[in-house]
C-alpha cells in the first residue's frame, strides 16, 4: 500500500502595517517583523501670509448661534385708530366729491339745454361710470375684508393654540383650508386633514397639523419668491449705473413681492388693501430699525473676510438683496393665516447662502 500524500498547508503570512497615504513612506520588512508602523515624515513649519486674518469662531456669523436680540421681530398689522390726518382726508374728500357732483349736475343741465340727445348721452355715461365705480369699490372692500379675515384667523389660532376645544380648532382649520383652497399645493394637505378629522381631539395638535400640511408647501413657495426677488434686486443694484434706477426697481420688486405673498396665502388685496399692507410692512421695518444698511451689516452677515473682497457695487447689491428678503419675511408674517408654531420661521440668515457671491476653489471664507 502506498502512503497517503502529505497535506502541505501554506505558511500563514505575518501581520504587517500598511498606510493609505500616498505621501507617507511604506512599511519596511524590518518594521513588519517588529510590528512597528513606519514613522511619517514630519512637515516642516511654515508661516502664513501677513495679509490673512483669522476670524475667531465666537465672532463668525456662520458658526455661532443667533441670540434673542438678533432674532427678527414678528411683523404685526397696525391697529386702526383715530388720527387728524384721516379726519382731514375725509373732510377734503367729501368737499371734493360735492364739487364734482355740482359740476356734473351743471354739465348735464347745460347739455339738455343744447340738445336732448346730448343730455341723455351724458346720463348714460354717468350711469356707466357710477356702475364701474361701484364695482371697483366692491372689489376694494372685498380685498380689505379678506385681509381682515386673515388677521382674525391668525388671532383665533394663536388663542386656540394655548387653550381651546377640538370643535373650535376644527372650525378654524376649515376656515384656513377654505382660504387656501385656490392653491393646488394644498390639495394633499386638505385630504390629510379630512382623513384625520376625528382622530385628533387636542386643539393645539390639530392646529399644528393644519400648519404643517396646509401652510408648509405655501411657505416653501413663499421662500422661493423671496429668494428670486432678492436675487433680482441684488443683480440690478450691482449693475445699475444710477441710484434712481436702483430705487425705482427696488420699489417695483417690493410691491410685486408683497402682492404675490398676499395672493399666495389667500389675501388677494385690492389697491387700497395693497397700500395698507405696504404701510404695515414699512412701519414694522422702521420700528425695528431694520431698514438701515451699511458696512456693519455687511460684516455681520457676510463675514469680515468676504466683505473686504467685495467691490462697492457688488456689496451694495448683496445688502439690498438682504433688505428685500427682510421685507419679504415681514410680508410673510402679515399675510400668513397662522403664526409660526409647528414650522420654523425663516430669518435673514437663511437667505445669505442664496445671495452670497460664489467664491473660487482656493477662495475660502475665513
TrEMBL record:
Biased composition, class Basic and acidic residues, residue ranges: 1-11
An example Gene Ontology CC term for this record: plasma membrane
Protein's cellular compartments: Cell inner membrane; Cell membrane
Chain residue ranges for the region called Disordered: 1-52
Entries under InterPro entries matching the protein: DUF697, UPF0283
Membrane topology note: Multi-pass membrane protein
Record's compositionally biased regions (Low complexity): 25-34
Keywords tagged on the record: Cell inner membrane, Cell membrane, Membrane, Transmembrane, Transmembrane helix
Name of the molecule in the record: UPF0283 membrane protein BJF95_22900
Lineage: Bacteria, Pseudomonadati, Pseudomonadota, Alphaproteobacteria, Hyphomicrobiales
